[in-house]
Amino acid sequence: MPRPTHFEFMVDDPERAARFFGELFGWRVEKWSGPMDYWMVDTGAEGTPGIHGGIGRNEQPGAPPQTINVIDVPSVDEYVAKVEAAGGSIVLPKMAVPGVGWLAYGADPAGLVFGMMQEDPLAA
């Protein structure tokens, strides 16, 4: 069954947000070496409740900051079709996150945005 496995804070200044949340909660936050302006967030010890996440740049100028929960799915293509069949919409089409997998953002009929990630280290 698909489950939330990652969160994203999408903000206008990810470096500032990385410092803030790292200092506030003691999270380990490190700039990702990939091609995106993105910081990886380690929220605590393995084996304890919770998920890890990331902080990225909101690519829509003037858009408010948002938190996006990312759901692990076996096939982004399959779940994109399911979102649309259920009356939702796709707000970020399927894209490769190099070395990680395939990502798409959907929205429910009321506009609540969520992510869907298919792990695939060969995604490019």
The biggest beta sheet, please? 8 strands, mixed
Shape: globular
Number of domains: 2
The portion of residues forming beta strands comes to 35-45%
Order of strands in the sheet with most strands: 2-3-4-1-5-8-7-6
The Cα radius of gyration reads 15 Å
Distance between the termini: 26 Å
CATH architecture field of the largest domain = Roll
Q: Give unreliable regions as ranges.
A: none
- Helix-strand string: EHEEEEHEEE
CATH top level of the largest domain is: Alpha Beta
Examine the coordinates and then state which fold CATH places here, giving the name of the CATH topology of the largest domain: 2,3-Dihydroxybiphenyl 1,2-Dioxygenase, domain 1
Give the integer mean of the pLDDT values.
Answer: 94
Question: Explain this structure to me?
Answer:
The protein is an alpha+beta fold and 124 residues long. The protein has 2 domains: 1-65, 2,3-Dihydroxybiphenyl 1,2-Dioxygenase, domain 1; 73-124, 2,3-Dihydroxybiphenyl 1,2-Dioxygenase, domain 1, CATH 3.10.180.10. Helix content is 18%, strand content 44%. It is built from 2 helices and 8 strands. It has helices spanning 14-25, 76-85; strands at residues 3-11, 28-31, 38-42, 52-57, 66-72, 89-97, 101-107, 113-119. The chain has an 8-stranded mixed sheet, covered by helices on one side. A hairpin with a 5-residue loop joins strand 7 and strand 8. The radius of gyration is 15 Å and the shape is globular. The model has no long low-confidence stretch (mean pLDDT 94).
